[in-house]
């Protein structure tokens, strides 16, 4: 029989083998600190039209309501930072957020999590649990923070000292008691680069992001017409936005990922302004067949391109 420390070590070793950057563990308990914050954020309508954020309030705060008998939350980070020559140019053409360059992360991570859960069952015995990748009411950043994987920065992203913040967060919630990690210190200090750089003033105060003002929200979540008062504020971003991460000093430590599935479609980095503006349904389907960009849809992407095109004149 393995003890808690041995089991925890085995899980972390297997996570590393599967390509996860870091793995941390916290006790499956009620998120007391998060409850008033989430309630206040929702009351101020900072979620905009993301009405799903209002659902399952209790489940978001207590993993034991998601997995019966849950004892541990295993948080995992998977790097998606691209090689320099894979990145789109900063100037001159329309831009897609780095996380959406390759295959939709939901599929990639879900497979890895299932493999990890199967491994736990083989090595430890029957363990009940569920895999979560940004598609259920789980407060990813809160659990990763509790597990010591980083601190939540002023731009509301999780930041890890050695690697920055260009990674996905996922969880296994299991009914197995493990050795728990503790949180680390906040190292944002007096830096306000993310607040100063946000073109839509979505970071309304340090550690508070009004989601309904974020370029990512407008270009992905909002299904209506884009508000005219945002005219000229998107730069060249047509799907998502990386500005608050790009300016974060901690991201100078970001290293390229080693996940083949996250490599961009060869055609993506060759796309010129004119290619984007003339994109057809066929090219969209081919280029973003397995990508998260499918979330906004062809019509949504066209809307975003036309909105940005009105106010910028990028050179092809």
From TrEMBL:
Keyword Disulfide bond attributed: no
Key words, A-Z: 4Fe-4S, Cobalamin, Cobalt, Cytoplasm, Iron, Iron-sulfur, Metal-binding, Oxidoreductase, Queuosine biosynthesis, tRNA processing
Stretches assigned to the 4Fe-4S ferredoxin-type domain: 176-208
Residues given in the record as tRNA binding sites: 223, 299
EC number: 1.17.99.6
Broad class of where this protein is predominantly found: cytoplasm
Amino-acid positions noted as binding [4Fe-4S] cluster 2 in the UniProt annotation, renumbered to this chain: 198, 214, 241, 244
Top-level taxonomic group: Bacteria
Required cofactor names: [4Fe-4S] cluster; cob(II)alamin
Gene Ontology molecular function, alphabetical: epoxyqueuosine reductase activity
Pathway in which the depicted protein is active: tRNA modification; tRNA-queuosine biosynthesis
The keyword NADP belongs to this UniProt entry's keyword annotation: no
Catalytic activity: epoxyqueuosine(34) in tRNA + AH2 = queuosine(34) in tRNA + A + H2O
Cofactor annotation comment: Binds 2 [4Fe-4S] clusters per monomer.
Residues annotated to bind cob(II)alamin: 60, 134, 155, 158, 169, 216, 241-242
HAMAP family for this protein: QueG
Sequence similarity: Belongs to the QueG family.
Function: Catalyzes the conversion of epoxyqueuosine (oQ) to queuosine (Q), which is a hypermodified base found in the wobble positions of tRNA(Asp), tRNA(Asn), tRNA(His) and tRNA(Tyr).
Protein name as annotated: Epoxyqueuosine reductase
